[in-house]
Amino acid sequence: MKTKQTLLNYFGLLLVFCLSGRAMAQNAEIIGSVKDELGALPGANIIVKGTTNGTNTDFDGHFNITNVNPGELTLVVSYIGYKTQEVEVVARKNEPVNIGDIALSSGNELDQIVIQGNNLPNQQKALNIKKNSIAIMEVLASDAIGKLPDRNAAEAVQRVSGVSIERDHGEGRYVIVRGTPIAWNSTLMNGDRMPSTEGTSDNTGGTRSAPLDIFPSEMIKYVQLSKAITPDMEGDAIGGSVNFITKTAPSKKTLNVNLGYGYNNQAQKPIQSGSLVYGDRVANGKIGFLVSGTYWNRNWGTDNYELVYDQDNQAINNLQLRDYLGARTTTGLNTGLEFKPNDNNTLYLRSLYTNFKDEESAVEHIFNFDDSDMDVRVRHGIVDINMHGIEFGGDHKFNNGKFDLDWKLSTYSAEMGNKKVKGSDANTDAYLMATFSTPVTYNNLTSDGYKFLDIDSPAGYNGDHYDNIQPYLDAPVTADQLLLNNKMAYPAFSLEDDYTAKLDLTYNANDKLRIKVGGKFKRMDLERGTPYTYSLYLGNYYGAPIAMSDFETRTFPLKGGYLSEIGSPYNNVLVENTIRLDQIDNLFTDEYDANPLFYNIKFDENNPSSAGSFYSGYEQVMAGYTMADYDLTSKLKVIGGVRYEHTNLEYKGHSVVTDADDNTTIEKVKNNNDFGSLLPMVHLKYQAQDNLNVKFAYTRTMARANFSELNPTETISLLTTPNTISRGNIKLEPTYSNNFDLIGEYFFENVGILSGGAFYKALENVIYTGRSFQTIDGNLFQVTQPQNSETGWLAGFELGLSKRLTFLPGVLGGLGVEANYTFADSEMEVPMYTTNASTGEVEVSTTTEKIPSQSKHIFNASLFYEKGPLSFRLAGNYKDASLAMVQGNPENYRWYGKNLTVDFTASANLTKNMKVYVELNNLTNEPLRYYQGVSERPEQTEYYSIRGLFGINYQIF
């Protein structure tokens, strides 16, 4: 509390100073904004004619030019796709001149394109920001996001060059930049890293990544992707920094309503969406406000089959056929309040709330070839994630614009589950699982009881094709044969609270030099835990055996079928009637358990089977930076600077020891660490022509270890030979990268771009999960622990094209194409373990492998049409295979298969303010695939089917 009060006192004094005083100056300042008929134009270039003194408009279209010589002068305002305009101004000494709004009109080539409702103005905004930035970045505007069939933040960003995403049940969740691991990419909310809600089922979960399917795209004003960061940005961004800028007070009265209704073909259930945005400015424009709300409910379905292998000989241990149904609901509320008492001072207050709820149910047929039995596992669960936060800050200019002071206090929280849950209410934040089993006889096994795929078949054995692995039962299994074997209640809890204060001061020394310094303080508190309770039923443990047929059942599979994409090969082995999913909760009541499982759920961290998943911690980061933005010549500009971040860590966990007699003891443990990171950065921009840029950047960035990797918990077992230890590592160093980027950008006059570039990342301290053998107190232990490797690298190139085909005749002139391609390759050192056949000793050697999650090829392509009231876009997104997990030796590595998704959107303007639209996702019903070693050895294959949405958007005013 003392630290927080000191910060508040400091910012209070600073605010009073900024609002009450203004130092004397010798030169003039010009203030204004640039707009068109639809609103603000960010990234517009304004320059004092006959000089090099100028600036660009910010995201809200505002600008101020300092160090202007008093007298009569001319401002030259330019914007891609608009006519260049000159504005006469009289600048007065020691007195800011507010020239108000400068209105631009489109160029002649674009006159026939109806701007209202089309993507053109949004592409103009993005390209102007990109063109004028010294740093290497990509930008998406809010309306451009609305033109794509993407309803959450991750899916919106996947269209950007070099970006791919990972999905969960067909919906985008995580952003990957240039094929780097998810943990190497920073996801920001208005410049601050978003809190994570990633939970953990043991001490291997708990990442820093924020799942973006909880964040609706309707709340986004701009997405700013920095592929090479500057010193004033958070330094943990090896792959890139994705900054989601939320909507704030508009420049004029706004009321927009968006309603949509659709259908998911796999679930054969509806989708509904709706959003409302209202904002205005009052008190002569000094006070602005905005309120936006969104609701998105989508039913979903997934057909899945999975294989578990015996890694010693690639035999199939079991086949799992999973049929999922679920409903996801995202609700959000975003508010913004702005107070602008004069041209030099702005205060703002922003708040955000979003809730993501996923109710999931599944029926799983599990064929255990190695145990000669069959399970039907049913589950029902709810994941409930809340994220909320508030920001209070200001922007103050003084000394006639020579100094610009920005400051912000913010707090954000993300929570999954509810630690305070008790009793039967736990089913609102838990997975309930029940397994029914029966002995079966499998045919087509080898003489020693193994089953193989055809690619792994021994001589004389006929293995199965990977898309048709059959259990070959003697007879179909019925519900009355399946007896309750076990049940499990599995809640999870995750909490992160972030508190941030930052201050940035810019000194506009002259028309060529700008110096910026600043600091940031961040405190993060987190908790993770997954207590689960488990009951085992064998024979008459609770009286007479409980059969699946004792409950109300339903026909299986339901409408939508099961794996119809590959010819429904399993209809002959699926149980025709399975327990109704709404009956699963009944298994956890007094009728079936005298001591219901829910009443045993306690977040007291004393359950030996789950104590290892409980940990808490805090991290405190103090950061400071200095940088200069200098115009070496009229064509060559440079940003140079350095950032320093000092990190303090303290984590609490448990030591869980199981002795040779199977007795378990639990003790609390605590570890701490601190480290400093010095991050120099240089950016160069050479503007060879007005529409041609060449940019180079050297940046040093980092990626901190995941929370779970820092977890001090250790699990020790003396039951096995050798004995085992699994633990985290608080002493992990961050992964560091020296990044080199070179890119060229050519901007077309009719709004488009041709770009190409290369990048190289020299890596240090790459974090991996290591396994070693150590002798402790005379006993041999196999120790599994995160470690730092020494070196690695990632390199590649990218190409991009966006071109409107306005040279085509007639209606064809509305066609356009967008395409971008990224090639990347990588290498990192990892240990490889082999057993000496003669001595039995484990030998360790080093091999090189690709960096996890790194795809060699990433490709986006769109064909679009925009002319008159009609527009459409057909968009494809391709992601090549990538290494998902290093496990065992290379033939056992887990890979994420290549993936191509195709989406379509179209709209028509019924009036100036009203349009209708249609969105179609996953037109090709592309599956998600994981495989082991080679693509013909699948570990997981999922199909989601097509989904679509029809809607209406009404801009009331």
Walk me through what this model shows:
Mean pLDDT is 84; it is low at 1-25, 108-117, 144-149, 199-204 and 421-428. The two termini are 46 Å apart. 46% of the residues are buried. This protein has a 22-stranded antiparallel β-barrel. With 957 residues, it is mainly β. Strand 3 and strand 4 (54-56) form a beta hairpin. It is built from five helices and 51 strands. It is 5% helix and 56% strand. This is TonB-dependent receptor. Keywords: Cell outer membrane, Membrane, Receptor, Signal, TonB box.
Helix vs. strand class: mainly beta
Question: Radius of gyration in whole Å, from Cα?
Answer: 30 Å
Low-confidence stretches: 1-25, 108-117, 144-149, 199-204, 421-428
The percentage helix is under 10%
The proportion of residues in beta strands is: over 45%
Please state the overall shape, judged from the principal axes of the Cα atoms.
globular
List how many beta strands DSSP finds: 51
Q: Ends: how far apart?
A: 46 Å
Main beta-sheet strand count, sense and barrel state: 22 strands, antiparallel, barrel
Mean pLDDT: 84
Tally of separate helices = 5
